[in-house]
Every structure is written in C-alpha cells, then in structure tokens.
Amino acid sequence: MPSTTPPAEIATAGDSPLGDPASEAPTAIELAQPRNLLVLAGQQIMLRVAWIFKTESVIMPAFLDTIAGAGWIRGCLPVLNRIGQSVPPMLLSDRLRAAPVKSRALLLTSLLMSGPFLLLAGVWFSLDDKRQPWLPWLFLLLYFIFFCFTGLNQLSFGTVQGKLVAVKRRGRLLALSGVIGSFAAIGAVWFLLPRLLERDFANGFGWIFLITGVGFSIAGAVCLLLREPPDDAAGLHPRPQRPLHGVWLVVRRDRSFRRLAVVAMLFITAQFLFPHYQKLGYVQLEAGGFDLMVWVVAQNAGAGVFSLLAGAIADRFGNRLAIRMLVFVSALTPLLALAVSHAPQAVGRSTFWLTFFLLGLIPVTLKALVNYALEIAPHDDHPRYVSTLSLCLAVPFVFSPLAGLAVDLAGFTPVLLTVATLVAAGGLLTFRMSEPRHGSDAGEPTGVSRG
Hints:
The structure is a single chain. The two termini are 32 Å apart. 56% of the residues are buried. By secondary structure, the chain is mainly alpha-helical. It contains 18 helices and no strands.
C-alpha cells in the first residue's frame, strides 16, 4: 500500500497541502510533493493510455452499433456514464473524508475499473455469434458499473490531489499528465488499433477490452509509489450518512459553488453528442474504419494540447479563466461538425477529424472544473465539493436519451445547434464566477459550507 508518515507531520492549513508558508520547517507533504506530483501524473498517463481504447465518442458507440444500432440505445451511454460518475461519489464522499490515507482509495478504484472490461473481453472471446439479443444489455450494465468505479476514482484523485499538490501546481499536473498521456495514448492506439480491428474484426473488440482492463490495473499499481502522510485520526469524525443533506449544504451555503454548478451543467450538455459524432461521420461522409482510428488520435491530441494551454493559464491566472476559454471553444464543436459534414464529401471526410480534436476539450474542462471546486472548498470538505459537483453534472443527463431520439426523428442539425447554444450560455456565465486567488470578486466568502 502507499507509504505513510507519522500523523504529526501532516499539513492541513486551508486549501494548500503545504501548511503555513511562513513555517520554517518543511512538512512531510512539502518534502514529498515533487515525487507525488510525478507519481500522480504517471497514474493519469497510464489511465489515459488505457482509456483511449474505450473512447466514448468513437470506440464505445461503434461497438454498440455493431451489436445493436438504435440511436436511443447510443443515447443511453452518456446517461449511464454520468449517473455512474455522480451518485456513488455522493454516497461515499464522507467516508473518504474520514480515511486517514486517501491514496488507498485511488489505488483500489483504479484496479476495480479494470474488472468490467476484463469480463467483457472474456465474454466477447467466448461467443461465436456476436449478435446475441442479451449482449447489448450486458454491455450497458458493465458500462454502468465501470463508470461507478470511475466516479469513485475521480473523487479519490481529486481528494488526493487536493491534499498532496499545492494550488498553483495543479495546473502543472494537469498539463504534464495531459500532454504526455495523450501522446503516449496516441502512440499505443496508432500501433495497435489497426492490427486489432483490420486483421481480426470479430475478435478485435475483445482485444481492445483486454488491453483497457490491463491498462487500468497498471494505473492502480502506480499508486503504490505515492508517499502520503496519514491525516490525524483525532480530527476525522465520519459524518452521519446523509449524503443529500451534505450536497444541499454545499449548494445552499456557497454562492461561488452555485455559480460553478450552473456553468458546469450547461457545459456538460456537450457530452450528449459524444455517441453521435461518429454516426454523423459515417452517415454524412461515408467514413470507414481508418477514419475511426484517426478520430481517436485527433481527440487525444486535442486533450494533450488543451491540457498544456489550460494548465499554464490556470497556474498563472486562475482556473476561472481556463474554464472560460475551454467552455467557449467547446461551444464551437457542434458548429464545426455541422459545417464539415455538409462540405463536399472529399473535403468533409478529410477534415472531420477537427471535430474530434475539439472534443479533447471535454475531459480537460472537467478537470479544470474539479480544480476550481477544490480551490473554493475548505480543506476538509474536498470530497464533499467534488462529489457535489459530480452530482450536479449528472442532472442534465436525464435529457440525453431524448437527444438520441431527436437525432433519429429530426436529424443531427437541430440537436447540435441546441447543444452549441447551451454550452455558449455556460461560457457567458463564467463572467459571474468569482476568482478565489483575487479574493471574491463579488464580495462573497467562498468555501463556507462546513455543515
């Protein structure tokens, strides 16, 4: 398990894990911070390499189209994705808060993320006839279980990052893991994906799932290298299990968080379209298997580039400006997809990858939103703020299956225009967000929820 240090050496002053900056003696967290930053970056890099083989905008909907095909079923993917990432963290955030060593949860949840894909690989390899009527439902169940573990993993990572990495180094962590992780993932998928799908398409998805599961297991093992001093057990009292009450306290008491939540809920509607972009490419531009690989590469290249930009902006100017930039550019993605898909087929097919390049903004923006939540939260409330943000992100997804149904009934254009408008509205509302590093722009205190 991750190594520990005696509780007396813990720093817990405010949001910074580094304690009092005027302190003469460095704390255990200060001494271990360079190592822990690199280890956390390594864990995220390995996670991204594994994740690229199950990209939500390309691989997963393509697999579901192979075994099912209906738009409303594709529309279920974002719902299961977001509910899984939101409800379990809300239920377990206080338990994580009371855990003396937070990185053990990061290790365990990384390992658990591998389970659904290893099981799915075994099932796929065992089937001679891949078009089984029960297979889409098994896939959706395992997909949901995976995202339950993913939500807990993200909660754990945010909490560990909040404890071990200083505020003004979190952008560096985002940039380092995003850039190296994206290009490592691109190298892996460019080398392996054609061999997996072109030579043996029937079993290709099985190999994809197997690689994904093994990759998540390795990401978990990397956490063993973290050095985390345990929190003082005397100051950690598990709260009564009233998770919705905790969510309500954060939303009711912290105006800065409410503004963040509204921006986040408008922005996340962009994820409604994740399963449908690849279908748009196939229908409008007659794209093929090679295009699928190019789109996966483009999306991860975008994640790397935008991680670098957003990380630098966040460390220098604050997360608010980084979020504003990312949300406004995200609003252009559906418009770009429409423009390219209506271009002459040769032009459209050769440039549709630009849509997926901009989709790389989505995971980067979600991390920036979490970093902002960590910055406005009291130090001991990091798990509660992160889990409350995750729950807020889940609320819009009740409309995701309707978006898939609308694509089937009315076509892509009205759905993409609607989402672009909602995301742009979220960008405008970032001007109402406070900047924690400049005090509170609107004069209200931040991080007041301690109930």
